[in-house]
């Protein structure tokens, strides 16, 4: 995604879960909770109606009723706690409960706006000590500690003791567990591809290394190459090149400087699986349809936003007040990321990249995605993309209405919701936001692309898509500067974009490629983007879409005057990213200005790999292919944190991406994100409070944490997974 300017009403701060004994109190620590040890009475704690507390062995215990829905439906707690803005606190308690049940323990405001300052949701069992530190965000005398116990179908038993909230504690210093100092692609190197590892070391002279097979036998050896201090991580590193070894197998490790890497394969099978998994991700992002548990075991859920309470539904969505006088049926589409919003600009680049994978790769057409449309005559990748295309088309202003042909920028909740929350349980009103030139051109571009792609399978749909694309393009030319504001309420990301010459170029390019018509050709040739360097120091994304037009002009067969120069510009882009990758000790084809890593940096790495791969397809130059593969190593564990950013791929991978329904970290009854989900990745700006509490001062690659609360470093998003799908398709095709 990249909800750049996201605002939150609820701030969640540091949570540190520890077992064992409490840390000793410092002299200036001040206890805020009264009678937290329940000495002779449960006063002044309260409990919700119908759930009396009893004193048992000096603990407060309750029989929690079954059949409640929300965590906060039943609770015990204590009010009137003073909190001082900027002061650090430790919140700790001992708790037990029937095995597998969950308590949501919070410190927050007892009065409106009910902000939560810290929360943890441990799965209970025998008596265990829990502790977390946080910094209070506001001064109040109406703070609260509470233990929320609702949401269970069955009754259960809960006990708590030694409830403590002390001020004046030093904040915890977070140190990530980065494992062995030898960093590899934990998934797989291709037998015929490059194979490079990194060793983090104090040594500045070459080190001997060995490649071990699964039996521990050395099958290759050599010496490493010192690379000095790597700017992106601040680490002194050396490079290990074992590319001459090509025998397929699993369980390989690299040993250097007394450290053994995590295990990896040499082989291609993982990429065949990933090509499917990265696309299968979209089915469980679908809105407006029941997710079939037999197709996606563990992920079945009710249809979201189909006008069944408590949803207010997407069947008849009004505009924000004063924006329009009609409603639209905008059911369907994909949820954008970890929230329940649907955004045309981001849906556009996502759909383009998936259709681009289809246009570039013949093999992907035969890949089954285990979706309801599997087994029909249309490739599953197109069935999945059409789920979004129908939604995008539904966002267009109908004929006869003001601004007809333009496209609404987005539809989402009126206010942010909390986590976890299944899509069908979202009670918020839904609203259409104003039309924008950018959204209109996104529809024009991808609907035009769809018109040529779907023509062999569904000519009627192709015709409808082309008509929508033409109408949108004409409307955008008549309204060329309707920009989405930086903020127009809460409840969703802004996705504002102040420059739309790139969207005009991309839409004209797709319409030209599909129709061959002169008018669109003229607009392509006249666009300032056509001769600009569109392969910048960052990467293309939802707001910078000229590269999408350029890549398609260079690769989709067409008769544009000056086509060789277009193709040459893509090759030059690939050369640029090749040079970046070669200059990086970790081999990453991404080196942002000032080492300031972007929101969703993993997708930036992958989109630059898309440019490298396209350069390879245009020229056959092995250096482009090798840089693409070596760049992918970063995503799979050859990085400062020594972890894969794709769930289920690699010995250690992201598991807790920010999502309201893959929220296993908050509710063990919910799943982790599915295998093949890409985490956003290192983000130097760490906009969310949780990341700020752990990562302030982080360097480049280290600005990431695998926690569901870190929406700025660890969200999942449809556009990011599209880059992963494209690249994994490219690798599988090799
Ligand atoms: Ca006690
Ligand atoms: Ca199909
Ligand atoms: Ca733009």
Please characterize this protein's 3D structure.
This protein is of the alpha+beta class and about 725 residues long. Strands 1, 3, 4, 6, 9 and 11 form a six-stranded antiparallel β-sheet that branches. A hairpin with a 2-residue loop joins strand 19 and strand 20. Helix 4 packs parallel to helix 6 (about 500-515), helix 8 packs across helix 9 and helix 9 (about 565-585) packs across helix 10 (about 600-620). The chain is globular and about 90 Å long. One calcium ion binds near residues 499, 502 and 503.
Comma- or semicolon-separated keywords:
734 residues, signal, globular, 26% helix, EC 3.2.1.4, binds calcium ion, Ig-like_fold, CenC_carb-bd, alpha+beta, disordered N terminus, 6-stranded mixed beta sheet, 13 helices
Shape: globular
Unreliably modeled segments: 1-27
Let me know the average pLDDT. 93
Q: Helical residue percent?
A: 25-40%
Count of runs of 4 or more consecutive helical residues: 13
Taken as a percent bin, the fraction of beta residues is 15-25%
Structural class: alpha+beta
Roughly how many Å is the radius of gyration? 27 Å
Largest sheet: 6 strands, antiparallel
**C-alpha end-to-end distance:** 28 Å
**DSSP, total strands:** 28
- Could you say which small molecules are bound to this protein? calcium ion
């Amino acid at each position: 995604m990249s909800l750049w300017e996201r605002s939150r009403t609820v701030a969640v701060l540091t949570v540190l879960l520890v077992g064992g004994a409490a840390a000793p109190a410092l002299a200036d620590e001040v206890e805020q909770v009264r009678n937290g040890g329940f000495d002779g009475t449960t006063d002044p704690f309260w409990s919700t109606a119908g759930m009396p507390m009893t004193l048992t062995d000096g603990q407060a215990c309750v029989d929690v009723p079954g059949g409640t829905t929300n965590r906060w439906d039943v609770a015990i707690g204590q009010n009137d706690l003073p909190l001082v803005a900027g002061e650090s606190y430790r919140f700790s308690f001992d708790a037990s409960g029937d095995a597998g049940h969950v308590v949501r323990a919070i410190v927050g405001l007892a009065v409106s706006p009910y902000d939560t300052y810290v929360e943890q949701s441990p799965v209970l069992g025998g008596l265990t000590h829990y502790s977390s530190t946080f910094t209070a965000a506001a001064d109040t005398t109406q703070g609260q500690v509470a233990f929320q116990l609702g949401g269970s179908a069955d009754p259960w038993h809960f006990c708590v003791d030694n409830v403590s909230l002390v001020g004046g504690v030093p904040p915890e210093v977070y140190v990530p567990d980065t494992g062995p100092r030898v960093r590899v692609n934990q998934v797989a190197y291709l037998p015929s591809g490059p194979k490079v590892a990194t060793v983090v070391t104090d040594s500045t002279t070459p080190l001997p290394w060995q490649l071990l097979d699964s039996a521990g036998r050395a099958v290759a050896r050599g010496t490493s190459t010192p690379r000095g201090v790597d700017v992106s991580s601040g680490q002194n590193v050396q490079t290990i090149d074992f590319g001459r070894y090509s025998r397929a197998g699993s369980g390989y490790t690299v040993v250097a400087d007394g450290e053994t890497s995590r295990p990896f394969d040499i082989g291609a099978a993982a990429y065949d699986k990933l090509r499917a998994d990265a696309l299968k991700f979209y089915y469980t992002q679908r809105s407006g349809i029941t997710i079939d548990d037999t197709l996606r075991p563990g992920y079945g859920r009710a249809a979201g936003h189909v006008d069944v309470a408590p949803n207010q539904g997407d069947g008849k969505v009004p505009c924000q007040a004063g924006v329009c006088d009609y409603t639209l049926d905008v059911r369907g589409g994909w949820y954008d990321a970890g929230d329940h919003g649907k955004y045309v600009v981001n849906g556009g680049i996502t759909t383009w990249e998936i259709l681009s994978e289809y246009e570039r790769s013949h093999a992907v057409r035969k890949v089954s995605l285990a979706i309801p449309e599997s087994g029909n005559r249309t490739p599953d990748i197109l069935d999945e993309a059409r789920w979004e295309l129908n939604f995008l088309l539904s966002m267009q202003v109908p004929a006869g209405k003001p601004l007809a042909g333009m496209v609404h920028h987005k539809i989402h909740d009126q206010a942010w919701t909390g986590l976890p929350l299944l899509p069908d349980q979202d009670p918020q009103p839904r609203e259409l936001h104003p039309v924008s030139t950018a959204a209109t051109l996104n529809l024009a571009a991808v609907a035009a692309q769809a018109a040529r792609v779907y023509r062999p399978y569904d000519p009627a749909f192709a015709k409808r898509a082309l008509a929508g694309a033409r109408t949108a393009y004409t409307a955008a030319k008549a309204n060329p500067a309707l920009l989405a504001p930086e903020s127009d309420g809460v409840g969703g990301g802004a996705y504002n974009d102040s420059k739309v010459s790139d969207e005009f170029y991309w839409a004209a390019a797709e319409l030209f490629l599909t129709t061959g018509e002169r008018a669109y050709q003229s607009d392509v040739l006249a666009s300032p983007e056509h001769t600009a360097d569109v392969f910048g120091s960052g990467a293309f994304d939802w707001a910078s879409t000229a590269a999408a037009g350029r890549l398609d002009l260079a690769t989709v067969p067409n008769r544009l005057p000056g086509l060789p120069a277009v193709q040459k510009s893509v090759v030059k882009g690939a050369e640029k990213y090749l040079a970046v990758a070669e200059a990086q000790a970790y081999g990453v084809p991404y080196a942002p200005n000032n080492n300031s890593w972007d929101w969703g940096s993993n997708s930036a790495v992958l989109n630059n790999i898309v440019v490298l791969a396209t350069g390879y397809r245009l020229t056959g130059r092995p250096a482009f292919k090798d840089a693409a593969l070596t760049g992918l190593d970063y995503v799979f564990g050859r990085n400062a944190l020594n972890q894969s950013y794709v769930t289920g791929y690699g010995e250690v991978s992201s598991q807790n991406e920010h999502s309201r329904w893959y929220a296993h970290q908050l509710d063990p009854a919910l799943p982790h994100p599915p295998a093949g989900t890409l985490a956003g990745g290192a983000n130097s700006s760490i906009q969310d409070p949780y990341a700020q509490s752990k990562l302030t001062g982080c360097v480049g690659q280290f600005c990431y944490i695998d926690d569901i609360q870190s929406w700025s470093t660890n969200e999942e998003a449809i556009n990011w997974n599209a880059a992963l799908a494209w690249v994994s398709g490219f690798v599988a095709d090799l």
